[in-house]
């Protein structure tokens, strides 16, 4: 599990005073980017290697309001299987309250062939820091 924290800004809220639905996806993207960083992978590193993460599917479940000033933990669970895709599932937590869940299927796009990489965990491990490669090795199956 990987965790980062964001603070809800006033301009992210809608006329009802809670976070606009599209912002939840932005919080998820922030969590994904920070997870790659924790693995020792900057997006520029992946791009230089000719690959990049792609989101194939996401679903958001809104469970509780988030409002301006709330501290939100973005908790990401990374899971790999045997195929070309992997899971990055996220909980947005305000204290003990799960405000939303974001379930997602992802892949790594080969920039030359425009196809998904066959072994995304292996490609990421090869580029990750030693500690990041171990975290990838230890990630559970999807």
What does this structure look like?
It is an enzyme of class 3 (hydrolase). One of its GO terms (molecular function) is hydrolase activity. Pfam families: 4HBT_2. The chain has 142 residues and is of the alpha+beta class. It has a single domain (2-138), classed as Thiol Ester Dehydrase, Chain A. The protein has four helices and five strands. The protein has helices at residues 21-38, 43-48, 120-127, 130-138, and strands at residues 2-7, 51-62, 71-80, 85-94, 97-110. A five-stranded antiparallel β-sheet has the order 1-3-4-5-2. A hairpin with a 2-residue loop joins β4 (85-94) and β5 (97-110). α3 (120-127) packs antiparallel against α4 (130-138). The two termini are 13 Å apart. The model has no long low-confidence stretch (mean pLDDT 94).
SSE topology:
Elements: E1 2-7, H1 21-38, H2 43-48, E2 51-62, E3 71-80, E4 85-94, E5 97-110, H3 120-127, H4 130-138
Antiparallel strand pairs: 1-3, 2-5, 3-4, 4-5
Helix pairs in contact: 3-4
Judged by helices, strands and strand pairing, the structural class is alpha+beta
Largest beta sheet: what is the strand line-up? 1-3-4-5-2
Beta-strand residue percentage:
35-45%
Summarize the helix and strand pattern as letters: EHHEEEEHH
Number of helix segments?
Answer: 4
* Sheet with most strands: 5 strands, antiparallel
Report the span from N to C terminus: 13 Å
The name of the CATH superfamily reads Hotdog Thioesterase
Radius of gyration: 16 Å
Any idea of the CATH class? Answer: Alpha Beta
> What is the overall silhouette?
elongated
The residue-averaged pLDDT reads 94
Residue stretches low in confidence (pLDDT < 50, at least 5 long) are none
**CATH architecture heading:** Roll
* CATH level-3 fold name: Thiol Ester Dehydrase, Chain A
Question: How many DSSP E strands?
Answer: 5
The percentage helix is 25-40%
State the domain count: 1
Protein name: Acyl-CoA thioesterase
GO molecular function, one term: hydrolase activity
Organism: Actinomycetospora rhizophila
Keywords: Hydrolase
């Amino acid at each position: 599990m990987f965790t980062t924290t964001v603070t809800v800004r006033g301009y992210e809220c809608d006329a009802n005073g809670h976070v606009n639905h599209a912002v939840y996806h932005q919080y998820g993207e922030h969590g994904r980017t920070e997870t790659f960083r924790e693995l020792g992978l900057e997006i520029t590193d992946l791009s230089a290697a000719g690959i990049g993460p792609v989101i194939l599917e996401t679903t958001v479940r809104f469970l509780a309001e988030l409002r301006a000033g709330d501290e939100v933990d973005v908790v990401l669970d990374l899971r790999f299987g045997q195929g070309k895709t992997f899971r990055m599932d996220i909980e947005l937590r305000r204290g003990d309250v799960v405000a939303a869940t974001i379930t997602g299927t992802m892949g790594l796009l080969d920039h030359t062939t425009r196809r998904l990489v066959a072994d995304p965990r292996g490609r990421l491990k090869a580029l990750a820091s030693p500690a990041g490669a171990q975290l990838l090795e230890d990630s559970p199956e999807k």
